Every structure is written in C-alpha cells, then in structure tokens.
Model the fold of this input.
Amino acid sequence: MRLLPRSPRLPLLRLCLLVAALAPGARAAAEARPNVIVIMADDLGYGDVSAYGATELATPHIDRLAAEGLRFTSGYCSASTCTPTRYSFLTGAYAFRRKGTGIAPPNGRLVVPPEVPTGASVLRAAGYRTAVIGKWHLGLGGEKGPDWNGEIRPGPREIGFEHSFLLPTTNDRVPQVYVRNGRVLNLDPADPLWVGDRSPSPDHVTGLSHRSTLKMDWSHGHNGTIHNGISRIGFYTGGHAARFRDEDLADKWVEQSVAWLEQVRDQPFFLFFASHDLHVPRMPHERFHGATKLGFRGDSIAQFDWSVGELMKALDRLGLAERTLVVLCSDNGPVMDDGYQDGALEKRGAHRAGGPFRGGKYSVYEGGTRTPFIARWKGRIRPGVSDAVVCTIDLPASLAALAGAAVPAGAFPDSFDLSGALLGRADAAGRDHLIQQDNGQAGNYGFREGRWKLVRHDSRSAYHSVVERSLAREPAPQFQLFDLETDPGETRDVSAAHPEVAARLQARLAELIAAGRSRG
Ligand code: NG6
Ligand code: CA
Done:
C-alpha cells in the first residue's frame, strides 16, 4: 500500500501524511485490515455438513473452521440458483433487479457490467491483490459471448479480479476447459474450440446417440456433447489439448490457490475460492470414491471438505491464519437429482441435505437459500454460534468496511455492512429483513423479517425442489406466512391467524422491490 505521494514539491504535505500514517490509530487500522478468502461451495445444503447436524457423513475440516470461528444458523445466499447468488455476492445488488442474471448458458455474456463496482474492484482499489479461482458461471465476453479462441473480454479482470483461473460455466455445461486470465489454457490454435447450442453435424457424438457408452448416465437434459464419458448441456468441438478431467477439478483449484497465496502473502489479498463441489456431474477424484456411504454426492462433499482443509493448511504454513478472515458459504441449497443418475436419492438413507428446512435448490422456501455460513478470523472472532441473519449479498459492503475501502456512491444497493455481526461483536445486529429469490424469472420471493417468513409465488409454475415439484398436485398458493421460530420447516401457513403480519410483510416486500434498492 502506498501511503505517501512521491512529489518532492510538497514536503509539508508529505510530512503531515507521514505523521498521520504513523499515528497509532492509523497504523492499527492498516494492520487490522484482514486478508479475505471467501470459499463458496456449489449446491451445499444446510444439512450437508456435520457441524450443521449431518450424521451420515463427516466434514472434519469444515467442522474445524466452525469450531475456530462463528457458525451462523441464519446464514443465507441470496438466491436458490448459482448465477444470481454469484451476481449479488459480487455487486451487492439483488439479482431480480437486473434482467439476464438467471442461470448462465454456455455461450452467455458477462452478466456484471464492467462499470458496476464489485466487492473485488473496491478491494482492489484499496490496495488488495484479488483473485477468483474455480467456477465462474457469470458469463464471459461482450454481446457476442466469449471468443473462445482469442482474448475473452470482458471477464473477471474488468470487474476487479486481477487474477483468474476459471471453469467458465458449470461443469454440466460445455466446454471442459480452464480459462486463465482471459485465455483458454493449453489451447492449440490448430485445433480451435467451437461451442454452440445446436449439434454441429448429424454424426456428432452425443449422450442421445451414444448413451450406452456413458460412464454416468443422464436423467434429464444433459445429453449433448460427450467428454470424459459424461454428456453435457450444449455442444463443442476442438480444443482437445485444453480439456480437463472432471476428477481433477478440486485438485486444480487447490493447487492454483495455494500457488497464488504464496505469491501474494505479503500484501493484503482477497481470494474468491469457487469450488465446483457438489454440483453435477458429481465426479470426484478417484481417491474420494466411496469416501462416504452416500454415493458421489456425499463423496463430493468429502472432496470439498478436503479442499477447505488444504486452504487452512496453507494459511497455517504461511503464517496467515491470524491475518485472514475466511468465510465459507454456499451458492444455493441442495438438490438430489439435478440431471444425472448418480444415486444421490437412492443412497441418501437418513441424510437430509436441507437439514430441518423445506425445499432446496430452485425454491424460495428456507432450504433454497439457508445454507452453511461460517466466518473464521483466528484471534479476532470469538468462536461460537450466531443466530444473526447474514447473507452472501452483504459481503461486498462488509468486506469493504473491514478493509477500510471507500465504496463509490450508489454502489452495493442491497448490501449491508454486517462486519460487526460477522466478527461476532455483541452489540452488532444482523439483518432485520432479507429477500430470497429463486432463479429470478418467475417472480417468486421469500421474505424473512425476524421470526416471520412470507412466501410469494407470482408464477403458477413455481419452482419447489425437484422432488416437491414432481409430488405437487396443486399449484403453490400465492402468499404463505410461516413462523420460523415455532415452525422452521415451513409446514403451517399462519396467514389466517396473523393477517396484519401477512399484510405488513406483503407491503414491505413490494416496497423494497419497487424502490430498486434497500439502503438509503
Ligand atoms: C438447470 C439444469 C441443472 C443445473 C442448473 C444450474 C437442466 C434440466 N437443469 O437448468 O442441471 O445445471 O441449471 O445449476 O438442464 S446452478 O447451480 O449452476 O445454478
Ligand atoms: Ca449452485
């Protein structure tokens, strides 16, 4: 961090700045700026972690993180699918406020406009080194989408990440290549990469034409181009030297992250570690096959837990554990069958991925967004459990506050500075309300205010969890009210018993949606 201007013509100013910079308060503030690692799991449910009550599998590394930090019991992501949660995590704005923020297709353009400030750009401007490593799924490139054979711009670099090493979409979508700082890694120009949403030729090998050859069969969709014995959403040809094995993703994220941490260890840093576990296709490394009795879904959780342990080990080895705030969260709630026959449902036994909550991925019931949320900063956060309501959408404002970074006017319109609650300060509160959304197109919302939870389904084709959807005989009612204190599983609609609460929440939700922002 450069505190002093270099101009020799301003000796007095330099002197004043020097004195100010060395004043105990200023020095303490600078020293107190934490490094930050946000570890975001993919599709990890509240009940998928032993620290959150799972009994059918063990997550020792995540449990250690929880034991050394604050485990939130009302920690949320803002949406029950991936792209909108990630959009809001970066921009501090609810994704339903912006069109085109639903699940991004293989050739989708970057959904965060480069002029919009992000948590990464604000920390970068404050002198942090910034990187994103792992699953991106926020689109890449301009209007025409990514130029797979050239420079892929705009992308993470244009929105604040000086370093990026990405799985561009999500691994059930094409293509299976890494994109490092705007270029497909190991791409042979003689074998260009083509990506599309239509089969490129009648004889193109797909999960439909060659279903019997697959090492993991699909159950719905996911029957396009085959790579590594798994058929995907979408089609691609070429780029063979650049293609990775699904089994190696977790190792790659850890290897790349540890290398980057070693490189930046002496400067303040922000690492967004975006694991692909446990999204489909769940194909963990061979050494995790059978790690749990729950099949590849459980084994992917074991692999994710291992990744968390490796990052903690690196922080310990580099002497950074006491200078680094680690936040562990998920991008949406759990799902069993999300397109492949991997035995998740058949092998789940007594495991309840959503914990005590109703719904999961795609749903605005609690299970869709209430997910594991842990904050650890050794020596600063007193270990414990917190019931403060915190959400991934609050990280931009909270991290900026902890870093002493200036937030541009109008930025982060729905992100609250909850740094006090994250650090477990007794006098600091969490949110007093939170809007939960699904993928964002259907107009469905959850709205939590204290103990109350309003559910608003504007669409008759409302998403529940996949299981609920297949069982549902009736369309969801438009409004439901639940008392989370006595009924965390959202089983009893109490709107008739509390009409004034239902009306107040309906009005406040409508107001917050119409206002375009939740902060002044
Ligand atoms: C859905 C896919 C699902 C998954 C999801 C994105 C079908 C039928 N379903 O459209 O498999 O890819 O998108 O998941 O294709 S997310 O976690 O990245 O949001
Ligand atoms: Ca996800």
User: Anything to note?
Assistant: The pocket of NG6 (ligand 1) is lined by residues 42-43, 81-82, 103, 137, 170, 172, 220-221, 233, 279-280, 332, 338-339 (CB under 6 Å). The CA atoms of residues 337 and 344 lie 7 Å apart.
